[in-house]
Amino acid sequence: MMMWSNFFLQEENRRRGAAGRRRAHGRCRSGLTPEREGKVKLALLLAAMGATLAVLSVGTEFWVELNTYKANGSAVCEAAHLGLWKVCTKRLWQADVPTDRDTCGPAELPGEANCTYFKFFTTGENARIFQRTTKKEVNLAAAVIAVLGLVVMALGCLCIIMVLTKGAEFLLRVGAVCFGLSGLLLLVSLEVFRHSVRALLQGVSPEPPPAPRLTYEYSWSLGCGVGAGLILLLGAGCFLLLTLPSWPWGSLCPKRGHRAT
User: Tens digit of pLDDT for each residue in 29-85?
Assistant: First the structure.
């Protein structure tokens, strides 16, 4: 019996030693301490929230709503909402429009919708919305800048994943730069789009019928873009803080053991 118990004890010790060596090998391979790895994952979670909002903003067409004024004696009114890629015009029942509004809308109300993609991405033609003509150069610039922001954001995600899986800590600073640059590009795209909306409102066509009076209001897709840009900039700042050496923070915040001595 003593011989069998010693055998089982030796076998258990051998398994524990093998498991400890595997954990040590995993730590050496990643190159990150568990505490530092947790901080990187938290910063990556913040950046992932910004990335989700960025994709949602760029992929939807509720950047701005164009609303006509309600006409007396008519049962319907017209509204439109557009983004970087397409525009949707809607005919809404005035009975569904809130009574405190002088204009048609909001665009989320049920109605007859007609959505078309902008042709300046394919044939180079300007779009006509409520007898107004878009300025395709400005719209194209806003779309290209937004796509560049998404590409740079994807590169930042790839860099941080390499940091976590391969232990390439030098890519932490590269990922921070990518996330910061993507946030700036998204904000620049929003500003360029704002200029395109102003150019659209001023581009009244002289051909009949006369252009109706319009009001505009920015919608939730643009709000997602603003939030995405700010969150990505915040995530980039967190990654940059993680690249700083630890000794300045250690001198400002000494450990309890040092204070006790």
Answer: 446 788 888 889 999 999 999 999 999 999 999 999 998 887 766 788 888 999 999
Residues comprising the chain, all counted: 261
The range of the structural domain enclosing residue 148 comes to 33-243
Residue 150 covered by a domain: yes
| Domain harbouring 202, CATH code | 1.20.140.150
Instruction: Select from 126, 97, 101 the least CA-distant residue to 111.
Output: 97
Whole-angstrom distance, CA of residue 67 vs CA of residue 150? 30
- Contact call for residues 89 and 129 (beta carbons, < 8 A): yes
Helix axes 136-166, 171-202, angle to 10 degrees: 160
Let me know if residue 100 belongs to a domain. yes
Strand partners of residue 76: 93
The verdict on residue 25 lying in a domain is: no
- Model confidence pTM above 0.90: no
